[in-house]
Amino acid sequence: MTELPQVRPNFANPPLIEQAIVVAFDPIDGFDINHYGLFSEQIAPAFSSNGSTPRMENPVEHFDEMMATAPTLKINAFELPRALYGNETGETIQIQDNRFGFNWSKITEEPYPRFETTYNRFKELYRIFEEFCSKNGLKVPNIKQCELTNLNIIAVSEFGQDFSDMGNAFAIDPLTLNDQLLIPETYVRTRQHRIIDATADPIGRLHTVIQPVIKNEDHSKAFRFELTARSAPDLSGLSEAKAFFDIARSAINAAFIGTTTDAMRLKWGEKK
């Protein structure tokens, strides 16, 4: 992939609460439910908790039509679920026979450690997974697609009194319709953009969603701002995934800056 200008903002206290780094590949022949337990043994005690959740079907980005497929959960008695392994530092590994992911979650007041740190941790854990496959007579996965997701939670109290004040935090269309019968409340905004290389060829897609939520811990109002950059399904290994992740970071950062107001970025300690 041709190098493009990098977008690397620096915030003292960004609203980012979770980041997911995921790679997808063809199903591993012979991978079964027993391998979940064996993998748990290999990564213990660093990951002491484990569980399962419905299988995640890998969404595929197409560029010969307007809409991309959306990620879906799949429950099928004949297919493996998705296994989750967590620890007390906010790290989670998620695996299934065609998908490996690493999640960093903010569980303390410590700020987001930046992508260099989370990506190096992802590489370390993915290397353990590759070694696990080889050790157990399984074919080492060949990465075909990858995605990077940043999840931000922005409390309404940081910029206003109610959801209708979202224009103080986000660059959005005006909510007011100049009609006495219509009182502004809020809205959900979903957008998608093609990610292109230096030759203007599509190499992935950026999905952004802003939606109002109620925080579980204190029932206060907030906005969930999620950005996902997903590659086209034509990668051939971790090195090409890394090249896309570098571009994905810039795409997510540019969308974050372009969607939030100057006042909010100042509040988060943006460093010029």
State the major sheet: 9 strands, antiparallel
Low-confidence stretches: none
- Percent in helix: 10-25%
* Count of beta strands: 11
Mean pLDDT metric: 91
- From the N-terminal CA to the C-terminal CA, the straight-line distance is 28 Å
The shape, in one word, is: globular
Strand order of the largest sheet: 2-5-6-7-1-8-11-10-9
- Which percent band covers the strand fraction? 25-35%
What structural category characterises the helix and strand content? alpha+beta
Q: Counting H and I runs of at least 4 residues, what is the number of helices?
A: 4
Order of helices and strands: EHEEEEEEHEEEEHH
Radius of gyration: 20 Å
Descriptive keywords:
272 residues; alpha+beta; 9-stranded antiparallel β-sheet; two-stranded antiparallel ribbon; 4 helices; globular
3D structure, described in words:
By secondary structure, this protein is of the alpha+beta class. The protein is built from 4 helices and 11 strands. The protein has helices at 33-43, 115-135, 238-259, 262-267, and strands at residues 16-25, 49-53, 55-57, 72-74, 82-86, 91-96, 99-105, 143-155, 189-196, 202-214, 221-231. Strand 6 and strand 7 (99-105) form a beta hairpin.
